[in-house]
């Protein structure tokens, strides 16, 4: 059994080794990286290794040791029907729940008649009479049953007999050095975690290490005495004192903690620890830039280096690329759907681009006197990689620091100077990009938006910072006199890029124009960056406009009205808020009590998350006290609706229009209910929200809530360090060390599912039908399922038998199966012979009506006598209603190792999300409706087609397993693996999908359309499909191309090859363009090789053989030589161990290497010849006489002996013979020629000859990894030896 690490590629055959690997390599567990269960099918995670050990011993020990049954202790309650396998403590917890309800509970111990309904009395009796005694429980209370488990395979039993100790696994001497280095790194990681995550001051860390070393030294006499005593007992004739001294020195010198934290250790001081961490961890250190000679400076974290560090992390890059693939075109689901992104020429391209979101704010790191003190007020600029999904962007460690400086420095020097290093890097990102090693290319990007509160946005963007100014809005040119007019009226002129640039220029020349335009200066970002502009770069903020702006003000206004009308009192409202049963996140966000002076302040105050909870829960808190029809209450409910809508993560045009109407209705009702209330500027900003959603997408993705949560980290650091000297640099360095710790982890984000506790229940406690399903799932149902057989009557002369593994669930599924099996090209209904009516025909409407071994009759539907024919009519006409667009069949990669389930339609995703939550919470089964299942199967079929047109059973099972892994609610309780029905449905769906492809003229499927039909030749009935993991077996013609245009390109290609020095670039380009035409000639027309060489001479050049193989298999043929490099020493070692006749022959081969200078190509040659000898399928001349292709070696006639067992190390040349002709020659070595021959077998669609089949299969499946899961016994045996 193989055990695989869930965080890296580590693989072992022992569970103990995997456990040690986790402790050594991933031992720095955090909330982001909890310890996973060692079993791949278990989703539990743990915060300590002890918890993992308990879990393994409790839930996986029986499965590991291969036992067939285990005893289960079941406790039964004497009061209720409770009966569950549990511990004694858990049972008494249940018993005490009855006592809390004053229910009389009898004592559960044997021979005791005590009963009580008083909690304390029962506990006192148990403590006094049964504490520490061995009195057994009553037989009706405690029972022991045997829970039968699956019998494990022989392989599992063998694995279980191995040493499975979780803690003690020996290391070889070769790994000790690496182990010491890793432990040193783990120790440094611990110090780093103490400083950054646990916020332990540096002086405290130093004090702890020094005291520990001192204690270690002082404890040496104790250890020495113990060692001396042991040696004296077991070793008589030795110098005890000398041996003890040597052992003590070795123990002391190899103590990892003492060695590296002692006086000369690498981690002994704060400076040494900082130096080690900077060198060994991915830490991007901040840079301090002076602003003047008075000590003012700005601290900047290089954004380009930080981007490289982030995108070098596999977890981050995968999620960034995955989010790109999830983009949809319908509605507004992210910023990619907004006009700001779509109008960005740099970002809105098919290539991967870096999208940045900035945030600017000021905060006070130490505010005992309030934020107005401003003594240590800092200005911070954060940024986030917007390519990540919003659920990942919201985590605080994903938010990065860019700039940190004193707020007074910004006021004195301006944003132009403070942001200079940041802007320079952003310009470089736009023009040249940043190199991403895993993508092997430079990726460009830019800033898409800047999140900030209104004051910060206006300050950085250059607008008026006073909202009492005449033009206070950054979205339009509304004046204070016109702010009572609605935005939807169209009376306010919106700001545009052109008008804003004009206003900035006019203000630059005449400062008095600022009051006419509301613009004071230009924005430094907009001035320097090509692809960023102020007008569509500063989105509104829900937090400050709604939750900390309009909501607390209007709540105060309406509460004042309710109190004045005596609906409620302030005390009753606060009491209702205090007693409300908050659950889930509301426990953290529960609102505070409303202050008594809210009348004077005109607002209830509070934080944004508290105000949101209060507004959302207000109908449940005080709604019963408010009479129906109260206008103030209606105003609040409209505001509540507005908040719920603007905080939505998905929008469409209808919802945006609905929001616009809600805003207008709320404004009108607010002014009617409170005529003396003056609207605030934020009321005007809110009216722009419908248009802002169209520009930026969902505004919840760009709000400032999570950014403001980042301030807490810096405040905590200042509180712990108590250092106010150059506080900005101190905070930046601490933050970057924290990021280095996170980036050093193999997992950057929290797991999607975290479970730390599991429980078991008795199977017999479930209803009978559930018990049956569970038994079937666990393999305890031994009755085999019979195949489902149907007799299909197409016509009186055409009656066919259909045998299926699984009975279709719906009539529609059966129709699809019958249509494909019988090759029916028309619509039809089905009738079945009903045994209840003497086998008379009845309409088939429900699969439950169909008996076993049923007979069904196909009834064609009447169609128009004049069917609509498309312009590209074929044998089968396709109406416009059945138009099917052939997906692109040009593939760039083979079948993925882990199949990624695509995103389904919005409705299906929503229902699946709800069902998943119900399944994970209550294990509630979900019955997938047919319309939903049809959408899922259709999307999966399209996704499968991107990799394989004819997927086998293993691949379909992998897709089905990936589906239930992503959506566990789709798990089938009645199948052994939980997805058998999905696998069968995918099988039938792919057949239906291929039928559509065939109707639409897809070449890869149409080539097999005549298989099995009457009147066709045996050759045409042969199925032509990828059999050797060809990715592009028979691709479609390129867009805007046909066979005539491609033939013209082929002629130009042939003419180019006639030149003395052909242009390699032109040849490569035209070979790429004509690939589909060439494959049609080779696969479909089966053109002879001699004709192909005449028509496609470039194909028979070494470079194009490599390129053609890459086009077909999406694999680099050079991997053949890399595999030879990797395996040659092992091959030689294996061949030397062979015995018998084969061993003698191999020894003759190997001796010929020893007699000469051993060069690499000679070793390659020997390995190839020995492989041909070892793996040959057949002996004798008959096998070689039927070879369709092979290699021809030409040697000098210098008198050297010639024989079957002699290796000619340096032949004159080697050539390739195909179909009796010399196709290519001039190769200097046999391995090179064999590599080209293997490539030609793909390029020319040649079957492996019988005498070389095993060798070529070994190259394909083992050395190149194409179809490695299916090996013959001989190849599998050699592979096992090779990898052992």
TrEMBL record:
This is C2H2-type domain-containing protein. Residues 143-164 are annotated as: Disordered. Residues 3-26, 35-60, 75-98, 105-130 form the C2H2-type domain. It comes from the Eukaryota. PANTHER family: SI:CH211-196P9.1-RELATED, SI:CH73-42K18.1-RELATED. Gene3D superfamilies: Classic Zinc Finger. Coiled coil: none annotated. Signal peptide: none annotated.
